[in-house]
Protein 1
Amino acid sequence: MPIKALSNVWNFALNAWLSKRFPDTREITLDIQRIFVIPTRLSAALLFAVLVLGLMAINFQNSLIYGLSFWLLALIVIAIFFTYRNLAGLTIRAIQSQPCFAGEKAVFELEVRCPDNQTKTAISIGWPFQDVETVTLRHQHSVHIKLSHSTRQRGRFKAPRLTLFTVYPIGLVVAWSYAALNLESIVYPAPRLQDNADHQQNADDHAMHGAESADGSTDFAGVRDYRSGDSPRKIHWAAYAKTGDLYSKTFVDYASDERWLDWDALPIAGVEAKLSHLCAKVLEYHRLHYQYGLKLPGTLIKPQHGDAHKTTCLTALALFGEHR
C-alpha cells in the first residue's frame, strides 16, 4: 500500500478515535481519560543520563551513583504527576463568536475555569499556527479569553479542535489535551465593489431616490398655461375666474426613498463576485443611513435600516446557496 494511502488511513482512524474521545460540546472538563502526558526532549535526555548512570553504578558498585540515578528517575515521575495535575479539572466553555469577512479572522470568546481549591499555571490554549493564549488561574477561578482563527471563504466557519497543553512546573514532560467545542462563526463575503455594476446601481438609485414624475397626481407643483387635451379636473378654475384665461394645475409624484439591492439586476458574472459587490453595497448604504432592501434568489428582505438589518442582510449573503 502506498505511503500516502497509509497516511490517509491513519489520519481517518485517528480522527475517528478523537471524535469519540472528544465529542462536540459547548463545555468540557479535562479528566484522566482526556489528558495525555508525553516526555519532552529534556526528559528524554535525562532518561538517557539515568540509563548511563545506572550502568556505571552496576559496573562500579557505587551507591552514590545509584542514589543519583534513582533521584533523577523520581524527579521525572514527580514531574509527570504535577504536570498532569496542572491540567486536570480545567473546564473550557464556549461563550460566543464574532462574525467576520472572508480573509479576516473569526474571534471566539471562551471561559476557562478551575475548581475552587486548585490553581492552574501557564496553560496554553489555541490552535497550531493560529492564536495561542497562555492562562494562569491563581487568585481567580475563571477567566475569559478571546482566540481568533483565520478564514478563507464565506459561509459557516467551524473552528477545529482546540489544543491545550502545559509543561509546568519544570518542563520535563508535557501534558496536553483537546477541546472539541462548538465554535461556529458566520463569515461574510469579502466586500469588493465591481466598477460596472456600481455605475449601473448608482444610475438606478438616482432614478429612484426622490425622482419626480411630471404627469403625477399626488403633490401639487404649480400652474401652467392650458394645453389642448388637459383634463377638466386639472383646470385651475380660481385663476380662470380672476383672469378669464385657462390654466392647468400640475402635480408630481415622488418615487419611494427605498433602495433595493437586486441580485438579478447586477450585470456581473460569477456568484462570489455578485455576493462581494452586494456585501460592499450593504456596508455603504448602512454607513449613509439609507433604507434598503435585498433581493436574492429565494430570499426577499424588506427595506429597513439599522445594525440589525445590516446583520440580517450580511448573513443572508454569507449563507447564500447553503442547504442545512
Protein 2
Amino acid sequence: MGKSSMSLLTSLTYLAADVWSKQVDEARKLALDPHATRSNQVFEHFLTLVSEHHNTERGVAFYADRLCITPRYLSQITNESVSKSPKQVIADYLMGEARQMLENSRLSVKEVSDGLGFQAVSVFCKFFKQQEGCTPGEYRRHIAE
C-alpha cells in the first residue's frame, strides 16, 4: 500500500470516528445507566459494529448475525431506540461520513466512493441522491457557496 493510500485511509478513519462519536457516546451513556435495558446494550453494540464494518457490510442480516439476534428483533430494537430501521441507521452513518468527506477534504467523488466501500461511483451517486436529494457534486458545490 502506497504512502498516499495510507494517508487516505488514515484520513478516512479519523473522519469516520469524528462523525460517529456523538451517536456512540449517547449509546454508551444509555448502556452505562444501571436502568438501561438489554435493548440499549444491543443497540450500542450495533452502532459499534456499523462503525467497524460499514465499508464492507450494509446488510441487516450481517449485523443481526453478529449480534446473535434475528433481523426482525434488530429492527425492533433500532425502532425503539431511534425510531429508524437498521438499514436507515447504516445509511445515516454512511451519509454522515460522505458529507464529512465532501465538506472537509479535497477527495474526488470517486475517492469518497472508494473510501466508503461502494462498488462503483454510480452506485454511490445514486445512494447519495436518494438520501440527500442531490448528487455528491451538487452537494459539494452547494456547501462551497
Protein 3
Amino acid sequence: MTEQNPTANMENFSRSVREALAITQRGCEELLLTADWLRKLARAEASGQPLRIKLGLDPTAPDIHLGHTVVLTKLRQLQDLGHTVIFLIGDFTARIGDPSGRNTTRPPLTAEQVKENAETYREQAYKVLDPDKTELRYNSQWSEHLGARGLIELAAHYTVARMMERNDFHARFTAGHSISVHEFIYPLLQGYDSVALKSDLELGGTDQKFNLLMGRHLQQEYGQEPQCILTMPLLEGLDGVDKMSKSKGNYIGITENANTMFAKILSISDDLMWRWYTLLSMRPLHEIDDFKRQVAAGRNPKEIKVLLAREITTRYHSGAAADEAAHDFELRSRGGVPENIPEIQLPCPTEGLGIGLVLKQTGLAPSTKEANRLIAGGGVRLNSETISDRALILAPGSYVLQVGKRRFARVLLKV
C-alpha cells in the first residue's frame, strides 16, 4: 500500500494539523495512509469532534516492560492532543492466541489467566494514559456474541489466498509446519474490533501490520471509513542490540522499584539514550534536539541521561521516588552506602563465620560456590573495601556487605 506525495500540499492545512502530524509520526515506523490521516485531523479540527484512536493488547503475560510502553507513550501523546483514546484489552482474542511472528501454534490461555492478566494490564497502562480520558474496552463485549453465524459471515469478508500472503503463515506452510484453522480466525477478530469501535487510527508494533490492515479492510467491507494505521518500532533493550525482552534479561519492568529502574536507565549507552528519548519521553522534539546540541558542544551526556531517568522513574513511581533514586545512585557511584538497605541478623559462633557462608545466608549469593566466584572476580565489598580472600572469617559484629553495584545488606553477626 503506497501513496504519492502525501504531504505535497501541506500549506493547505493549518499549523495545528501539521503539528499533530509531526507528533503522530514522531519515532514511528510507518503511517498508512498519511494523506488520509491529514484529512481526518483537519476534519476533527473543523468539527471539534475528536478522533477515535485505538490500541489493542492481549493480556498474555502479567507484567509490562518499557518496550511495551512505546505504543502506550504514543497513545498518550495523541491523547494530549484532545483525541479519544481507546485502550482495548483483548480478553477474548487472548484465548485464541496471536500467531504473529510465531513458527508454532501459540498455546491458549485459560479464562482465569486472561482475567488476572487483564486487571494487571489495566493498572499498568494507567501509569502512562490519563484514566479520566481513556475509554477502556474488552473485545469479549462483542466477540462473545458473534456466534457461529456471525463468525461465518465475518470469515466471508476475507479469502484464504489473502490470508496466506501473511509472512508467518506463508513461512510455516512452506516449511511444512502445521497451521490450525483457529489461527486464521485471530486476525479476523482483531480486525472486527476496529469495526465494533469505529476507530479512526489503530496503533501497533511492526509485527502487527497485517492485523492492523485487516481492520482497515473489514471497515471498508462493513461500509465504514477505513482507519489509518500507525506502526511503532520495537525498542532495543539495555544492551542496545536485541529488542527488550524478559527472556534476554535486557528489560526494565515498569513495576520494578524506583532505585533499580533509575540505575538501569543510567546504564544504557549514550547513543541508545537518544532513541529512548524519542520513543519513551514526553518531552517535545525541539527540547531533545537542544539536548543533542548541548552534548555536541561539550555537555556531559550523563546529565541528559539523568533527566531521562528522572522522567521515566517519576512516571511509574513519583517525583519523590525519582529524587531518592537519583540520590541513591550518586551515593553508590561515589562508593557510598544507600540509606535504606536490608538489615539481617545471623547467629554466629564465637570463632566467626566464613565470608562465603555469610553471603549465602544473607541471600547476596545463591551458594557458597557462587560467593567464592564473586569474591574472586572482585565483586564483593566489605565495609566499602573490596575483598579477595575467599577464606576470610568474620568475627561477631556489624558489617556492610555489597555485591556488584546494587545489592547491599547490613549484617549483624551475633553470638
